[in-house]
Recover the amino acids of this structure.
């Protein structure tokens, strides 16, 4: 019986470049576990700088994966982020694609 | 594309997702101190009611402890995100607190509940809250607390006044003080592990 041909590279899924960035992936993974999170909490969890974190969150916001809300709690400003439905969908698809690629890498 | 299909990098991404999800979930677990605080509060109220003024001992102790819990919890949770699980747990314990407070005030002022019924109702409600929490969090040690509270409720109804009092004191010690300290040790261990395995990618 002939051995099955290895899958051509073109059949493998592409990883979403917006999510693939390490910090953006970390942020989406964190936000997937909570309803909403403050900027300072995200900064602490990812050990990132204000500038880098703000830039990556903006990219995710522009892609529609996270939503930002500014509000005042006890006169203190708070910047809250939450994952949108399309963000959740994109992360799920990214994980599936990642698993598929890893499977293909093991088979190869 | 060659970079993207690099196996090590893909594994790193998968590990990163797992680490971050664990980090996010870890942030909701720090409540052992409330068990110890309320356990001490029950003992203070019992002692005060026995040797001092029973009419004000319970309401004053419970309201004060409730305020301390709310203040400390607000301070500790500042900047921490809200999760569905955290909110459902808070709902269970806040509802329990309100129920116990209303029952305690009404039962003591109306005089319709003797010590057997009083302890049995309180122990049953505490058992229910611990069981709900344990089943939601899938945490077996807390279910043992629920069983102890339910046993204390049964002893209170079927035993003498002395047995009822002893069962209540023992249940407080085991389910509030001992369990609270155990919870704090677990939380401390988790926090240390979290710091050790913390993210170093950003």
């Amino acid at each position: 019986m002939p051995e099955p041909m290895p899958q051509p590279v073109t059949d493998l899924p592409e990883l979403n470049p917006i999510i693939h960035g390490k910090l953006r992936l970390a942020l989406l993974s964190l936000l997937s576990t909570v309803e909403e999170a403050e900027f300072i909490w995200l900064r602490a969890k990812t050990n990132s700088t204000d500038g880098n974190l703000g830039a990556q969150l903006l990219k995710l916001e522009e892609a529609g994966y996270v939503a930002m809300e500014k509000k005042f709690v006890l006169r203190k400003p708070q910047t809250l982020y939450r994952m949108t439905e399309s963000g959740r969908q994109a992360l799920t698809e990214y994980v599936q694609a990642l698993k598929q690629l890893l499977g293909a890498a093991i088979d190869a | 594309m060659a970079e993207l299909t690099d196996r090590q990098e893909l594994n790193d991404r998968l590990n990163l997702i797992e680490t971050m999800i664990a980090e996010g979930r870890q942030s909701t677990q720090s409540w052992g101190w409330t068990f110890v605080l309320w356990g001490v509060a029950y003992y203070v109220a019992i002692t005060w009611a026995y040797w001092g003024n029973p009419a004000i001992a319970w309401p004053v102790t419970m309201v004060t402890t409730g305020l301390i819990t709310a203040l400390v919890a607000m301070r500790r949770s500042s900047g921490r995100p809200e999760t569905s699980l955290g909110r459902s747990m808070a709902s269970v314990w806040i509802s329990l607190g309100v129920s116990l407070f209303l029952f305690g005030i009404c039962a003591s002022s109306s005089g319709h509940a003797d010590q057997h019924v009083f302890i049995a109702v309180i122990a049953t409600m505490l058992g229910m809250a611990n069981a709900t929490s344990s089943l939601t969090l899938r945490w077996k040690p807390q279910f043992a607390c629920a069983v102890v509270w339910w046993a204390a409720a049964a002893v209170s109804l079927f035993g003498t006044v002395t047995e009822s009092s002893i069962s209540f004191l023992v249940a407080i010690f085991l389910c509030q003080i001992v369990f609270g300290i155990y919870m704090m040790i677990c939380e401390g261990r988790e926090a240390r592990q979290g710091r050790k395995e913390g993210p170093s990618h950003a």
Notes: Helices of chain B lie at 7-26, 32-51, 54-77, 84-110, 115-137, 140-158, 161-196. Chain B touches chain A at residues 1, 4-5, 7, 10-11, 13-14, 16-17, 20-21, 23-25, 27, 79-84, 87, 198-202 (CB under 8 Å).
